[in-house]
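Propose amino acids for all 265 sites.
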């Protein structure tokens, strides 16, 4: 009876473990499959130019379906941490305009980031917390206490890769609602900036093709996209300034705690 009970407990533990890890493993498997199939090779300006007329025609004939497909593709790309999100944002601005394309991108990116967050929290959040030392646990407590401000800073200021910022809050058990809201607000400025680039991309492509008429037929010719006209140093500085402002509440809270501790001491 005891052996049978132990076996049932072991089987139950394996089942729970699989349920925790399955979402993250599926995302990793899908990412590896995408790389093996060369999906990243489609995220190029040349590929966009070659298929521009076809894509525009499909969007004109099936706008709602095209927008839904774009949002789904973007969310999937973010969920599997696939490179090329900035390029897809530009494509969204080109096909749907900067307002509709930008808004759809924000919602899709937030959805994809949320999927990664939930998968990572399910798989490794509790395990890491159980093994964390006292310093790590104190840091996690501080992060959770002002999660919105810290998340907003990380989204506004591109100090770390987007995929990394998707995962780290899951390890600290940040509330999903806080994570999602900070992500949605924090990516608004950068997303609409790139969508604006996309909305004016037709003229850029036309100018490059005019100066290099046979470029698409020449495998050695590469079209380039210069985003410096929109993603300027001033704009980046504005992002940093907004990020610094988002850190003011937790900094003030820390100062008040230190003053109260000094008074009590």
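Proposal:
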């Amino acid at each position: 009876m005891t052996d049978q009970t132990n076996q049932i407990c072991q089987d139950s533990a394996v089942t729970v473990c699989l349920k925790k890890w399955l979402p993250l493993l599926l995302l990793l498997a899908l990412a590896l499959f995408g790389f093996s199939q060369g999906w990243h090779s489609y995220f190029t300006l040349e590929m966009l130019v070659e298929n521009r007329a076809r894509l525009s025609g499909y969007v004109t004939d099936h706008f709602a379906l095209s927008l839904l497909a774009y949002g789904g593709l973007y969310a999937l790309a973010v969920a599997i941490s696939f490179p090329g999100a900035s390029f897809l944002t530009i494509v969204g601005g080109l096909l749907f305009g900067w307002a509709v394309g930008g808004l759809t991108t924000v919602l899709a990116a937030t959805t994809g980031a949320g999927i990664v967050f939930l998968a990572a929290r399910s798989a490794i959040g509790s395990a890491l917390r159980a093994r964390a030392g006292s310093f790590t646990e104190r840091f996690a407590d501080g992060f959770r206490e002002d999660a919105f401000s810290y998340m907003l800073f990380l989204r506004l200021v591109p100090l770390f890769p987007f995929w990394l910022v998707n995962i780290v809050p899951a390890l600290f058990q940040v509330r999903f609602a806080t994570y999602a809201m900070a992500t949605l607000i924090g990516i608004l400025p950068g997303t609409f900036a790139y969508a604006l680039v996309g909305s004016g991309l037709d003229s850029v492509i036309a100018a490059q093709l005019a100066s290099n008429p046979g470029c698409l037929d020449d495998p050695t010719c590469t079209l380039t996209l210069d985003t410096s006209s929109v993603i300027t140093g001033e704009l980046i500085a504005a992002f940093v300034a907004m990020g610094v402002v988002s850190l003011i509440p937790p900094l003030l809270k820390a100062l008040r705690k230190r003053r109260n501790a000094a008074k009590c001491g």
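The chain has a mean pLDDT of 78. The CA atoms of residues 106 and 188 lie 7 Å apart.
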